[in-house]
Every structure is written in C-alpha cells, then in structure tokens.
Write a structure and sequence with these properties.
Blueprint lengths: L27 H25 L5 E3 L5 E3 H14 L6 E3 L10 H11 L3 H10 L8 E9 L1 H5 L5 E8 L2 E9 L6 E6 L19 E3 L8 H11 L6 E2 L4 H7 L5 E4 L14 H9 L3 E3 L20 E4 L4 H12 L2
Parallel strand pairs: 3-4, 8-9, 8-10
Antiparallel strand pairs: 1-2, 4-5, 5-6, 6-7, 10-12, 11-12
C-alpha cells in the first residue's frame, strides 16, 4: 500500500542520515530529521491498519483504554529508528500486551517488519520510568479511540532536555488529508499560529472525550471570553496541531478530578510545535509544563495552549471559572 500523502512541516527527511552508534555528536537538526522520518513511517503503518481492518484488533489494557496492533507496531517502528541515536525513550506502550497473545504478537511483528525478539525488545525499551536529562517521549498512537472510530489521532514524538521539549515531530494522518509538523526550539517552522487578536473571534478546540477535560467549565470559560463559536472537538494532539496551524486559537485541557496529572507523551510534541509557531503553552495556573518528573507532569494541573496573543486573558478566565 502506498504511503500517506502527508503535508510536510519541514520537508521530507526520510533518508541520508549518518546516525551510526559511533556518531554520538548529532546536532538537533539531524535529530529532528530522524524524528520526522520515524513518525512518518509509523503513521503509514497505522493508516494501513485502518484501511485493512473494519474494526482493528485490540487488547484491553489494565486502565481499560483500547490499544491496537497499530499502537504497538508504531512504537516498535519509531524505537527502531531511534535506536542508533543512543537516547532513551519514554513510551506509552510496553511488550506486556503481547506476551499472552501469539496471534496479535505475530500481526505486530508483521506490521513492524521485524522479528518477535526485536519487537519485544524495542517495546520494552520504551518503558523507561525515570529518564532524566535528555530523552525521547513517544505516544505511538495518541487518541486511540479516535483511531478506532476513523477519526483524529497522532503519532507524537518529542525530545526532552532538562525538563523541556526542545524538538518534536507530530504526524496527524487524518488532519487536513494528512499533516506532519516538525519543530525545533529556537527555529521558525514553516507554519504559524493564528493572527486573530480579539478573543471574541477565537476558536476553541477541546477533547472529544468528556473524561479528558471538563467540558462544562470550557463552556463557562468561552462565555467569559466572549467566544460565540462552537468548539472544535477532536482526539489526540491534533488539537495542538490545530493551534499551531492557526485553525484554532485556544486549546483547553481542564482537570477532571483532584490530583490527576497528565502524561508527558500526551503533550511534548504538541507543545514544541505550538511554541515554535508563536504560541504559548502553560498549565491552568500559568506555569510552564515540567517534563523532568518522570512519566507524568507531576508539578502541573491541566493544560492551556493558545496562539499567544491573549494567553493571559484565557488564564484569567480559567482562574475565575476554576476558582484558582
């Protein structure tokens, strides 16, 4: 099956890289090229699964969210591409889901184009719980429910250095007929946030799943800002892509229960794309997102991403509604 016709964020960097183990002094641009090539390849396989299966095979994880063969194959493919770089990976999935199901294991190996031993090793290699300093964080399919219902999902990869995303690649196969965004901190990407300066003219984007963000509070915040347009609702970090591309001005992910903390792989790639495109990303308290505390954003509550032009006004409305 031919690859997806993605709209490139920074060009096609699928080959020609010297990323042998001996070459450890790799510049960020080369890392970004490797990251984009990896998410493109993984997204092609995910699209193949969607095209070939009416209902993709799934396994029920302990947290009862669906995980598909595409999730696992995608993570194996990305980690294979990153292995020569020698940088640890914090990924969402592990090989545990495959150990008790030979049929699904065989399908994942087929999709990944690798042996069972290599696939299992690569999936387990993404299980770093306490990566420090410099590491990748990966969500092989962000928005699995969207993937399953033929809606929005993303393959999301970010490089973290000392608690901050410094580059990321975000493949959104169902967004605008296929979109890949790639961004490096300090560099201007070929995409930009909206130029709308009046918050009453803004478009808000939020999760489809009400369990991911408090939608009742989102309505109150939109009303406080004078936003009259209905919100866009989509799964995955495609919401970040919508802000980075100027299709929306505000993305809210509001806490749904006390003590809940977001996972780092759900925000790393999206954050760097929005910030490099000229936007701002904080938590609901206005604090930068801290990726140095393990697999969760332990020091942050919720997420507010905007085009940056009225971020403080959004934070003020959030504070009034949440009572913080």
């Amino acid at each position: 099956m031919p690859g997806v016709g993605f709209r490139a964020g920074v060009g096609d960097f699928s080959g020609g890289l010297d990323i042998t183990p001996a070459n450890r002094m790799i510049c960020r641009m080369e890392l970004l090229q490797a990251a984009e090539a990896a998410v493109r390849k993984a997204a092609d396989v995910c699209q193949r699964v969607r095209a070939e299966m009416v209902t993709p095979e799934s396994i029920e994880k302990k947290d009862r969210s669906p995980v598909t063969v595409a999730d696992l194959a995608s993570q194996a493919i990305v980690i294979e591409a990153l292995e020569p770089l020698g940088i640890p990976v914090v990924g969402e999935e592990s090989a545990d889901a495959l150990r008790e199901d030979a049929a699904v294991r065989a399908k994942v190996c087929e999709l990944a184009g690798a042996s069972e031993a290599d696939v299992m090793r690569r999936l387990d290699a993404g299980g770093h719980a306490e990566a420090k300093g410099r590491f990748w964080t990966l969500d092989p399919i962000d928005g699995t429910k969207g993937f399953l219902r033929n809606d929005q999902y993303a393959v999301a990869l970010a490089l973290i250095e000392e608690g901050t995303p410094v580059l990321g690649a975000l493949a959104c196969p169902a967004l605008n007929c296929g979109t890949v965004l790639a961004a490096e901190r300090g560099k201007t990407p070929p995409f930009s946030v909206s130029t709308v300066t009046d918050p009453t003219q803004a478009r808000l984007v939020e999760s489809v799943e009400s369990g991911h963000s408090d939608q009742d509070q989102s309505v109150q915040i939109a009303r406080a800002l004078g936003i009259g347009r209905d919100p866009l609702r989509m799964d995955s970090q495609a919401k970040y892509a919508a802000v980075a591309l100027g299709d929306a001005e505000v993305y809210l992910r509001l806490p749904t229960r006390p003590g809940y903390r977001e996972r780092i792989w759900d925000h790393g790639a999206g954050l760097i794309c929005v910030e490099c495109a000229g936007g701002r990303v904080t938590d609901v308290d206005g604090k930068p997102l801290d990726f140095s505390r393990g697999r969760k954003l332990e020091d942050n509550r919720g997420v507010v991403a905007t085009s940056g032009r009225f971020h403080d006004a959004v934070l003020s409305a959030v504070s009034d509604v949440l009572g913080v």
